[in-house]
């Protein structure tokens, strides 16, 4: 798409130091049951008496006991034939089984064993590349692909046509290829092997970012918002409008909302990239923003949370309660979760502004928080990450490892990625509390971080954006 070379510096990252091995289902060996022969066949392959020759055995000072056996050359020849037949039969035993049973046996093998059997024989190789086997293995591992219907609209076809189209899509997918891409991707996450790129273009520190499959959007102390192409790492657009540092931003397919140290928020049209409206009301820097299809929620250093109407930009309500700056806000359903310098995490009802629950346990100010409707994860200046039960307020887990302020974090399913002023990026397993990977990324504080299945991208104080790509050279477009 672009003829120019990427304006970025590519480096090969050193492998992360895994604190514990990442448990991958594929690494657990599965042994097949021993091949069973009927009693008559077993007798057929037994050695004849003439070949059962054992060396003499001595017991103490006892006499040497010997037994003479006659060796019949015909028996030796027969034995060799039987052994060869046994070897060939075992080698190709899958060819003698029904297809369904053979494919099921093959699907029980781990990935490395499957690769090995592809060179055993033509029959085994044909089974190895069977599409149904890999589709079943994908489903059993809980891995999926994004399928596109060829019809104009999913709603415009009947249920029967939908199922038929789904079947056709399944047959068209190369499941072996998708499985190998997913396996390699997870293996890289397991080992911490990435290809990293530094994106350079901002003139001062980068405070915030958001990205998707195609683009990256960043906000900086240089008062600009930049759009980057994630294929070429070229800057596509630069937006100006704030009179202070751009501290936060969020976007969807229609709008983007940015907050600044100039105490204002700006709503941008994502189609035209033009400023739609400016929201004024805070008396301090706007440290974070989030929104849904109804409301825009902002947190500020004035200790307050503002709720705005997405439709017209009017201020709906001001939520007061924190006694220190509100550093981070999350919106899920009718609940707002906020993190504050007063060392608390609080949950609010967006319709009434009342505090539903307060989460206490951090020893210092809380810099970042995320909420998925059931769990809350917070990072603090006390160098710990805490996982909370959103319903009960109970602290489920405390993760330790960072050596300075944890400025930013994100979690998806049971994976947490965090970063902060100790200049490290860490990957955690929320189910065990173990730190799986730790990347030391030079001499720069990290202000914001996000990740998806392919990448970890961080905004840094040294004016750069670091893209850590786990999927370099893989085709993961259709992997879920």
Automatic annotation (TrEMBL):
Domain F-box, by residue range, is 91-137
Q: A Pfam family matched by this chain, by name? A: WD40
Region Disordered: start and end of each range? 1-22
Gene3D superfamilies in the cross-refs: 1.20.1280.50, YVTN repeat-like/Quinoprotein amine dehydrogenase
Keywords noted in UniProt: Repeat, WD repeat
Give start and end residues of every WD repeat. 199-238, 239-278, 279-318, 319-358, 359-398, 399-438
Signal sequence, renumbered to the chain: none
Task: Read off the InterPro entries from this record.
Answer: F-box-like_dom_sf, F-box_dom, WD-F-box_domain-protein, WD40/YVTN_repeat-like_dom_sf, WD40_PAC1, WD40_repeat_CS, WD40_repeat_dom_sf, WD40_rpt
- Name of the protein described by the UniProt record: F-box domain-containing protein
UniProt source species: Circinella minor
């Amino acid at each position: 798409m672009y003829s120019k070379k990427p304006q970025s510096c590519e480096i090969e990252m050193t492998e992360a130091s895994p604190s514990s091995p990442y448990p991958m289902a594929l690494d657990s060996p599965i042994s097949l049951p021993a091949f069973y022969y009927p009693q008559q066949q077993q007798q057929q392959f037994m050695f004849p008496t003439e070949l059962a020759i054992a060396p003499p055995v001595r017991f103490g000072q006892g006499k040497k006991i010997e037994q003479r056996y006659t060796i019949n050359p015909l028996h030796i020849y027969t034995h060799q034939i039987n052994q060869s037949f046994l070897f060939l039969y075992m080698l190709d035993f899958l060819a003698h089984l029904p297809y369904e049973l053979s494919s099921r046996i093959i699907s029980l093998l781990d990935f490395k064993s499957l690769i090995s059997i592809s060179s055993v024989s033509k029959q085994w190789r044909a089974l190895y590349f069977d599409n149904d086997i890999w589709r079943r293995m994908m489903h059993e591992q809980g891995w999926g692909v994004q399928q596109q219907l060829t019809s104009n609209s999913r709603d415009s076809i009947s249920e029967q046509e939908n199922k038929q189209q789904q079947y056709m899509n399944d047959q068209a997918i190369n499941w072996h290829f998708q499985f190998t891409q997913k396996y390699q991707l997870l293996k890289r996450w397991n080992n911490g092997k990435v290809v990293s790129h530094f994106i350079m273009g901002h003139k001062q520190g980068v405070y915030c970012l958001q990205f998707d499959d195609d683009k990256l959007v960043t906000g900086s102390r240089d008062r600009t918002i930049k759009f980057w192409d994630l294929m070429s790492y070229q800057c596509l657009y630069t937006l100006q409008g704030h009179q202070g540092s751009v501290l936060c931003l969020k976007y969807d397919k229609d709008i983007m909302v940015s907050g600044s140290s100039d105490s204002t928020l700006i709503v941008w049209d994502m189609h035209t990239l033009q400023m739609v409206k400016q929201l004024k009301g805070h008396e301090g820097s706007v440290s974070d923003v989030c929104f849904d299809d109804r409301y825009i929620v902002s947190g500020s250093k004035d200790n307050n949370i503002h709720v705005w109407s997405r439709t017209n930009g009017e201020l709906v309500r001001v939520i007061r309660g924190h006694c220190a700056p509100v550093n981070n806000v999350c919106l899920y359903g009718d609940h707002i979760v906020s993190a504050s310098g007063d060392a608390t995490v609080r949950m609010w009802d967006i319709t009434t502004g009342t505090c539903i629950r307060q989460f206490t346990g951090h020893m210092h100010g809380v810099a970042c928080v995320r909420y998925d409707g059931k769990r809350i994860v917070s990072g603090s200046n006390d160098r710990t990450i805490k996982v909370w039960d959103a319903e009960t307020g109970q602290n489920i887990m405390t993760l330790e490892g960072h050596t300075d302020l944890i400025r930013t974090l994100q979690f998806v399913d049971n994976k947490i990625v965090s970063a902060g002023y100790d200049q490290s990026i860490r990957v955690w397993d929320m189910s065990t509390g173990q730190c799986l990977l730790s990347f030391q990324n030079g001499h720069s504080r990290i202000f914001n971080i996000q990740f998806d299945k392919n990448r970890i991208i961080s905004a840094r104080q040294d004016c750069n954006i670091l893209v850590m790509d786990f999927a370099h050279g893989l085709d993961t477009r259709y992997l879920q």
